[in-house]
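Same chain as my last thread, 142 residues:
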Amino acid sequence: MTQSGTDTKRTDNKTKSALSPVLLIEDEPAVMALVRAVLEGHGYTVVPVESGAEALRLLESGNFHGVISDMRTPGGVDGAQVYAWIADHRPELARRLVFITGDIANEETAATLRRTGVPCVEKPFRVHDFIAVVEKTMGRAA
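reply #2:
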């Protein structure tokens, strides 16, 4: 607060981003914790969920800057299905989606990546490589 009682905005990485949050879909707790910490450390606000089905519920009414999704998640809705829903119902987010997967050799995964053109970061990944793809796809956090 300033002396006049008005709020001031801080611009360091500890301040929440002015952007809407990034929706993170990841069922592995260690990977979720790492990705969330990296994103928050770079100024993004993160809403984490463990399944594609839970993500679709939030996407129906929530405002998100972008989506980072594992290709394989429990609950009957995988990354490809999340992309299809976004393309149909929230097309503005289709260009701000990043897949993460440890299953890039799987033909179904490879076909999805070819068909959608969505950038993918293969697990395990280097933090620098991951955040570079996120920033190229979604822009830097403010």
